[in-house]
Design brief:
- It comes from Lacimonas salitolerans.
- Its cofactor is FAD.
- This is FAD-binding domain-containing protein.
- Keywords: FAD, Flavoprotein.
- The protein is α/β, with parallel strands linked by helices and about 400 residues long.
- The protein folds into three domains: about 100 residues, Serine Threonine Protein Phosphatase 5, Tetratricopeptide repeat (Alpha Horseshoe), CATH 1.25.40; about 110 residues, DNA Cyclobutane Dipyrimidine Photolyase, subunit A, domain 3 (Orthogonal Bundle), CATH 1.10.579; about 110 residues, HUPs (Rossmann fold).
- It has 19 helices and five strands.
- It has a five-stranded parallel sheet, sandwiched between helices.
- Helix 9 crosses helix 11.
- The two termini are about 35 Å apart.
- The mean pLDDT is about 95.
- It binds flavin-adenine dinucleotide.
- The site of flavin-adenine dinucleotide has 28 residues, from helix 3, helix 5, helix 9 and helix 11.
Length: about 400
């Protein structure tokens, strides 16, 4: 049975179970990777937060209801890493396009170079002979999740020991992670490879792996150094999105998509849709086949939102591709279509296919609108603003 039932109820239960450990315990123990089924020292909430079955604000408020801001500082900062990465990519969407082009280039090479193909297959199947790496490849495929430290070590070994194109590693993650996210994944891999923080790479070391995995591995043969990959300079940041203003009294259709499955904030503003499309973009994560587990989680999350909000949605249509979305939009008969803002990634691309001839209003959450404009420099400058972000969102210790 999966550890990640795709429901908000399961997410809330996981959050409740984790809350006592979100303070000092998390600060002390979060870097330990105890292996599949034993990730109790971290929240494992990422598949739910990524699809916003739980919002970042809800998680932060729950944690602040239990711990002081100081005790929960580490956990709060990790949640804001997500917000920072999303904002960073939102200001520089060309980095996503460049990543996608890099996957295509690397995939072309895999098809043309038999040695590369064999090495790539061995890595994806967990057959490299590097004990920890093979265990993580299998854990990822079997569970749809990896601990953060394992993601860092895995990416580092992929890039610097196996010397495989980083884009193929990011693609492998996206095809299997239930939380697979255009921003956190792309920028996480770039960070390990020394592309994101220019010149600063992450080197996986056998002693560090042994220590933080409870001596489960005695890894041999890792690269002794991690010279940064060549890369283009960062593009200059664009202005942050501001979101569209919506007149909710006009006949309105709703596109509810996998990037934001908590539509309550729209109903609070007066939205009463004449029809709703529930849209998933999981097939577009990769040019290769995306795992059944990812599709199942996303489909389940959409079904869950329908079960929770069905009486507010009007007639519902499930959609999983841009052509059907366009056809649905043309037939709604509504004056306008409203959707929660989809950040840079495949879902946003599907919506862009509509924008030319459909009156699409993208509603930005206040939480994102406040934070994203500040993702202009490194995380530490952004982090200094966390108390302001929390206060402006009314998130405080109880
Ligand atoms: C190479 C690489 C790829 C990654 N790919 C993804 C991805 O596709 N999707 C994804 O959600 N995260 C990704 N991460 C970030 C991080 O590994 C996961 O968010 C985290 O491991 C999820 O487990 P958790 O929910 O138990 O985290 P916890 O430690 O319990 O943290 C709570 C929440 O904070 C956020 N968070 C924590 N650490 C990070 C981080 N370093 N960056 C961004 N957000 C963070 C997540 O939403 C997480 O659910 C990646 C990291 C690396 C190094």
């Amino acid at each position: 049975m999966t550890d990640f039932p795709a429901t908000r109820t399961a997410a809330l239960e996981k959050l409740q179970q984790f809350l006592p450990r979100a303070g000092a315990d998390y600060a002390k123990l979060r870097n330990f990777d105890h292996g599949a089924g034993r990730h109790d020292n971290v929240s494992s909430l990422s598949p739910y937060i990524r699809h916003r079955l739980l919002t970042e604000a809800e998680v932060l408020q729950a944690v602040l209801g239990r711990h002081s801001p100081r005790a929960a500082e580490k956990f709060i900062a990790e949640v804001f890493w997500r917000t920072y990465w999303k904002g960073w990519l939102e200001l520089r969407p060309s980095v996503w396009l460049e990543y996608r082009a890099g996957v295509t280039r690397a995939w072309d090479r895999v098809q043309a170079e038999s040695g590369l193909r064999a090495a790539w297959e061995d890595a994806c199947l967990g057959r490299t002979g590097i004990d920890c790496f093979d265990a993580w490849a299998q854990e990822l495929v079997q569970t749809g999740y990896l601990h953060n430290h394992a993601r860092m070590w895995f990416a580092s070994i992929w890039v610097f020991t196996l010397r495989l194109p980083w884009e193929l590693g990011a693609d492998f993650f996206l095809r299997h992670l239930l939380d697979g996210d255009p921003a956190s994944n792309t920028l996480g891999w770039r960070w390990v490879a020394g592309i994101q923080t220019k010149g600063k790479t992450y080197l996986a070391r056998a002693d560090n792996i042994a220590r933080y995995t409870g001596q489960r591995f005695t890894t041999q043969g890792l690269a002794p150094s991690a010279p940064p990959l060549d890369s283009a300079p960062h593009p200059a940041p664009l202005p942050a999105p501001t979101g569209d203003v919506v007149a909710y009294d006009r006949p309105t259709a709703l596109i509810l998509h996998e990037d934001d499955l908590s539509p309550g904030f729209l109903f609070d503003r007066g939205l009463a849709p004449v029809a709703t499309a529930l849209v998933q973009a999981s097939a577009g994560r990769s040019p290769l086949a995306v795992s059944d587990a990812v599709h199942r989680f996303t489909t389940g999350a959409l079904a869950d939102v329908q079960a929770r909000w069905g009486d507010r949605l009007g007639p519902v249509t499930m959609i999983d591709n841009a052509t059907d979305l366009r056809a649905w939009a043309e037939g709604t008969g509504a004056d306008q279509i409203v959707t929660p803002h989809a950040p840079t990634g495949r879902m946003a691309e599907m919506l862009t296919g509509l924008a030319a001839d459909q009156p699409l209003a993208r509603v930005l959450r206040d939480f994102d609108a406040r934070a994203w404009p500040h993702a202009t420099h490194g995380f530490f400058r952004f982090k200094a603003r966390i108390p302001d972000f929390l206060a402006a969102s009314g998130l405080r210790a109880r």
